[in-house]
C-alpha cells in the first residue's frame, strides 16, 4: 500500500485510543523516530513534545537501549514467570528496590500502568482480608485523578470530570475527596478538610487511599502542595489505611525528583510504576510494596491471585534495567532543571493571551490551560504544520518532552505552542 492507501485502511479498520470508530480523528503515519524527532511517512519531521505519552524519556532509537534489547533477544525473548525466574527480572527488581523509597522492597511485575493499579488495589484489599478485616474493601481518592482504563482503575478516576463517566453505573462506588486547591508552592489548611472528614468517617471500610503524588496527570495536569501528601500519609497512619502512590506518570524523574512522593518526604505502602520504566521501548509496569503488606497477603498460606502471561518479560526487564542505569548515570536532575527553565521561559508569553486561563510548569512538564476546550483535530493539525507533535485534551495544551531535548528544540517547541495558541485568542 502507498501512503494514502495505508491511511485509508487505518481509517476503516484500526481503532485508535480515545476515538470514535464511526468518526475517527486524523492520524499521522510515522516512518521512523530518532532522538526527539518523529519522521512521518510523507517526509515531514516533528519535534516530539509528548515523549509518546510521557514514556520515551531518553528519546527514540537510543543506542544503549537498542543494544540491551538486541542482546537479550539473542538469549531469550520470553519465558513464563510461573515457577521460573531469570537474570533480567532479578537485576531490575534489585534496582527498583535500591532506588525506591524505603521500606518498599517487594516487586510485582505487570503489563501496563492500568494493570499496576489493579494489582495495587487487590494487594490492599487482600492484605486486610487476611488480617481478619474483611470490611476494608473500599478506596478513597481525590477528584481530578486518573488511574487507568481498566475497571478498578476507572472506579478511582474522577467520576464527574474524568473520561469514564459513562461507566459510572457499573463501577464499584468509591469515595472522592475534594482535590487540594493550593498550588505546588502554597498551602491552605482547608485543603485537607474533605479527605480528613472522609477517612475519619469511613476508615473501617477503607482498604487504601490512592492518589497521584504532587502531579495529577490525565485528569487535569494539576500540581499541588507537598504538604497535602504529608497530611494524607499521617492520616493513613492514624486510621490504619494503606497509602497507594500512583507514580506511573511521575516516576523516573519527570517532576525533578526520581519519584514525586520525594517532594513530600513520604513513602507509600504500595507504589505503581509504568510509562518511563522501559524508556518507551515496551509496555511494562511494576507494583512495589512493603514487607508488611507482603506478609499480610501471605498470611496463613495466602496466595496472591494475579499472574499476567507476559509478567516479567525478559526483553522488557532488560531494557528497563538499561533505561534506569542510563538515567542514573546522567546528570538527570540538572537536565530536568534545564528543561524546566526552558519551559518557564518559552511558555511565559502564553500568559498574556486572552484565551489562556493559566500556565504552570514543574520539572519537565509544561501546561497551558485554556479557558475553553480546544478542537483536537484542528489544533493538532496546526501543530503538525508547524513541525511539532503535541496531543492536547479538553482545555489543556501541554508538553512533557524527552529529557534529552536540547535548548534549541525546546525553544522551537514552546515557540510553536505560543504561536498556535495565539491563533486561538
What does this structure look like?
With 425 residues, the chain is of the alpha/beta class. The chain folds into 2 domains: 3-61 and 331-424, Aspartate Aminotransferase, domain 1, CATH 3.90.1150; 75-329, Aspartate Aminotransferase, domain 2. Helices cover 36% and strands 17% of the residues. It has 13 helices and 16 strands. It has helices at 3-13, 51-54, 63-73, 87-99, 113-130, 151-155, 193-202, 226-239, 291-297, 314-329, 332-347, 376-385, 407-424, and strands at 30-34, 37-40, 45-48, 104-110, 138-142, 175-177, 206-211, 215-216, 222-223, 242-246, 270-273, 285-290, 356-362, 365-370, 388-389, 396-399. The strands form 4 sheets. It has a 7-stranded mixed beta sheet with strand order 4-12-11-10-7-5-6, sandwiched between helices. Strands 1-2-3-15 form a 4-stranded mixed beta sheet. A hairpin with a 4-residue loop joins β2 (37-40) and β3. The protein is globular and about 60 Å long. The two termini are 41 Å apart. The model has no long low-confidence stretch (mean pLDDT 95).
Amino acid at each position: 500500500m502507498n501512503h494514502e492507501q495505508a491511511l485509508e485502511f487505518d481509517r476503516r479498520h484500526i481503532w485508535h485510543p480515545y476515538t470514535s470508530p464511526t468518526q475517527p480523528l486524523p492520524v499521522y503515519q510515522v516512518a521512523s523516530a530518532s532522538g526527539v524527532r518523529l519522521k512521518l511517512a510523507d517526509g515531514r519531521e516533528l519535534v516530539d513534545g509528548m515523549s509518546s505519552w510521557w514514556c520515551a524519556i531518553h528519546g527514540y532509537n537510543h543506542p544503549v537501549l537498542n543494544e540491551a534489547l538486541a542482546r537479550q533477544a539473542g538469549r531469550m525473548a520470553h519465558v513464563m514467570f510461573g515457577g521460573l525466574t531469570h537474570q533480567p527480572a532479578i537485576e531490575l527488581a534489585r534496582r527498583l528496590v535500591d532506588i525506591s523509597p524505603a521500606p518498599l522492597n517487594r516487586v510485582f511485575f505487570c503489563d501496563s500502568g492500568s494493570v499496576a493499579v489493579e494489582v495495587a488495589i487487590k494487594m490492599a484489599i487482600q492484605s486486610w482480608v487476611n488480617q481478619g478485616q474483611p470490611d476494608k474493601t473500599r478506596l478513597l481518592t481525590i477528584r481530578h485523578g486518573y488511574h487507568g482504563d481498566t475497571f478498578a482503575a476507572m472506579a478511582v478516576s474522577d467520576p464527574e470530570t474524568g473520561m469514564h463517566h459513562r461507566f459510572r453505573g457499573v463501577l464499584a462506588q468509591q469515595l472522592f475527596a475534594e482535590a487540594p486547591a493550593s498550588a505546588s508552592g502554597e498551602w491552605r489548611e482547608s485543603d485537607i478538610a474533605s479527605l480528613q472528614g472522609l477517612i475519619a468517617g469511613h476508615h473501617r471500610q477503607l482498604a487504601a487511599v490512592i492518589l497521584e503524588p504532587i502531579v495529577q496527570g490525565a485528569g487535569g495536569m494539576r500540581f499541588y502542595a507537598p504538604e497535602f501528601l504529608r497530611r494524607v500519609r499521617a492520616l493513613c497512619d492514624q486510621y490504619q489505611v494503606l497509602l497507594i502512590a500512583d507514580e506511573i506518570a511521575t516516576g523516573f524523574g519527570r517532576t525533578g525528583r526520581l519519584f514525586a512522593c520525594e517532594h513530600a518526604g513520604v513513602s507509600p505502602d504500595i507504589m505503581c510504576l509504568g510509562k518511563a520504566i522501559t524508556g518507551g521501548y515496551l509496555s511494562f509496569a511494576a507494583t512495589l510494596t512493603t514487607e508488611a503488606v507482603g506478609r499480610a497477603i501471605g498470611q496463613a498460606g495466602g496466595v496472591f491471585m494475579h499472574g499476567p502471561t507476559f509478567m516479567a518479560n525478559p526483553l522488557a526487564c532488560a531494557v528497563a534495567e538499561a533505561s534506569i542505569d542510563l538515567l542514573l548515570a546522567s546528570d538527570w536532575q540538572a537536565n530536568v532543571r534545564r528543561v524546566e527553565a526552558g519551559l518557564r521561559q518559552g511558555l511565559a508569553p502564553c500568559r498574556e493571551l486572552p484565551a489562556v486561563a493559566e500556565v504552570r510548569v514543574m520539572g519537565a512538564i509544561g501546561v497551558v490551560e485554556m479557558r475553553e476546550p480546544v478542537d483536537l483535530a484542528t489544533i493538532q493539525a496546526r501543530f503538525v504544520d508547524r513541525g511539532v507533535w503535541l496531543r492536547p485534551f479538553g482545555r489543556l495544551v501541554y508538553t512533557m518532552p524527552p529529557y534529552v531535548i536540547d535548548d534549541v528544540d525546546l525553544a522551537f517547541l514552546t515557540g510553536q505552542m505560543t504561536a498556535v495558541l495565539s491563533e486561538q485568542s
